[in-house]
Amino acid sequence: MKILLIDVAALFLLAVTAMAVFVFVVQNVETPEYRVVEQEGPFEIRDYPPLVVAEVTVRGERRKALSAGFSPLANYIFAKERAGDRVSMTAPVIQQRAEPIAMTVPVTQSQDAEGVWTVRFIMPASYGLKDLPTPAGAEVRLRELPARRIAVVRFNGRTTDESIAVQEDALREWIDARGLCPAAQPVYAYYNDPFTPGFLRRNEVMIEVTDLVREAS
Question: Model confidence at 21, in pLDDT bands (50, 70, 90)?
Fold first, then answer.
């Protein structure tokens, strides 16, 4: 019994330590500013200002494309293949399908299938396009995303295709109930590194919206 209590205490201490590290890291990593227009539970409508990003385009299914896109972007901000200073890491890493897909295609199928994806790192707010170091090659591109209104659902856990599909479907229903119209492919936002325990992970599905009500077909 004594050994069992010691093990339980050790696990509790480990969990508390992990939570403390998680809070410290999240609080010290820059995230983009936005204005909350509406909030209901895990759902929000946010107004984002223009954002400067570094991006790459990769092909594959969602998880492999995210991994393939992360490496050249990390090499860019950490100055591994270019001249100049490092650029601070921010959160989230965002991923968006680069080519249009039919609205009738099930979400899970579209994630599993081979596709073209854009993976982006958001640059710190102190940088404008002209302030950023030039990438070493053509793979990494720098651009400014325009100001946008975005509907968001926030959730925790590991981002399986199934969990993303459930959240995306719920977000689309929430958007539709407000008479809003999706204006772009959904964006998947990942706030944590792969070593963060699942229950501590923050993820979001984001869809740009307009106030135009979709016309009945």
Answer: very low
Bigger pLDDT: 165 or 211? 165
Phi, psi of 35 (to 5 degrees): -110, 130
Q: Please name the amino acid found at residue 76.
A: Y
Burial of 137 (0-12, 13-18, 19+ CB in 10 A): exposed
Spatial separation of the C-alpha atoms in residues 14 and 18, rounded to whole Å:
6
Alpha-carbon span 188 to 110, nearest angstrom: 13
Q: Residues near 148 by Cβ (< 8 Å), separated by ≥ 6?
A: 47, 48, 208
As a whole-number percent, the residues of the chain with pLDDT over 70 amount to 77
In 3D space, the residue among 26, 46, 3 whose CA is nearest the CA of residue 147 turns out to be: 46
188-192, Cβ contacts within 8 angstroms, sequence gap of 24 or more: 188/62, 188/94, 188/95, 188/96, 188/159, 188/164, 189/92, 189/93, 189/94, 189/95, 190/66, 190/92, 190/93, 190/94, 190/95, 190/159, 191/26, 191/31, 191/91, 191/92, 192/22, 192/26, 192/91
- The 3 state secondary structure assigned to 170-200 is HHHHHHHHCCCEECCCCEEEECCCCCCCHHH
Distance CA 125, CA 173 (A): 32
Can you tell me the distance from the alpha carbon of 144 to that of 53, in angstroms, rounded to the nearest whole number?
6
The pair of structure tokens assigned to 183 is 């204006």
Considering the entire predicted model, what is its pTM? 0.81
pLDDT (average), residues 171-190:
97
What integer pLDDT is reported at residue 185 of this predicted model? 96
